[in-house]
Amino acid sequence: MDPERRKAIQDATVRLADGDRTAMPALVNYLWPVLHSFAERGLHDPQAAEDVAQEVLFRISSRIAEFDQSRDAVSWAFGIASFEILTQRKRRQRRREDHGGAELPEITGVPSTEDAAIQAEIRVALTEALGQLSEDDLAQLDFDDARHPSAATPAMRKRRQRALDRLRIIWRRIYGES
């Protein structure tokens, strides 16, 4: 994403958060193509991508009061979009929707520049959220440990679940709830 578009999205989001409702058309104009492209790559369905992009814009407008103006608006929007894409995928799985007899294609090869930038932004956002957890919670979320999940005691699983719940709360506080 070019720096000018990123700055325009940031400016429009800040104006909207400050109560300037005339900023919404500008925000939609700059953010729509980015969100739609991101959702289409995640869902491989143009119609579903349009639904997700609309839902993200709705969530942004309804949660704009929660936007922290010191944070990056694009990362905030992508955090919401990522959650919506996952939600859409879960809905498909629950409904066992037919994809024309074919599985969704796997994303392979070298990611595009935009994909790499999005992944980097999500990594930064996750690192920021993890940085707000306690040392004990981080120890529970040590995904590199050699323990097999079935070897964990019920108490260990419960502590890990509670740590994940706290991470989820932090993420939603920073980047908005779906």
General description of the model:
With 178 residues, the protein is mainly α. It has one domain (3-175): Orthogonal Bundle (Rna Polymerase Sigma Factor, Chain: A). Helices cover 69% and strands 0% of the residues. The chain is built from seven helices and no strands. It has helices at 3-17, 23-43, 46-62, 73-95, 113-130, 135-140, 154-175. α2 crosses α4.
Q: How many runs of DSSP E, i.e. beta strands?
A: 0
CATH class category:
Mainly Alpha
Q: Give the tally of structural domains.
A: 1
Q: What is the CATH topology descriptor? A: Rna Polymerase Sigma Factor, Chain: A
The share of residues in extended strands comes to under 5%
What is the rounded distance between the termini? 24 Å
Which consecutive residue ranges, at least 5 long each, have pLDDT under 50? Answer: none
Under CATH, the homologous superfamily reads: RNA polymerase sigma factor, region 2, helix turn helix motif
How would you sum up the major sheet?
A: none
**Level-2 CATH architecture:** Orthogonal Bundle
The overall average pLDDT, rounded, is 81
Shape: globular
Helix and strand pattern: HHHHHHH
Rg, rounded, reads 18 Å
Helical stretch count? 7
What proportion of the residues is helical, as a percent range?
A: 55-70%
Based on secondary structure, the structural category is mainly alpha
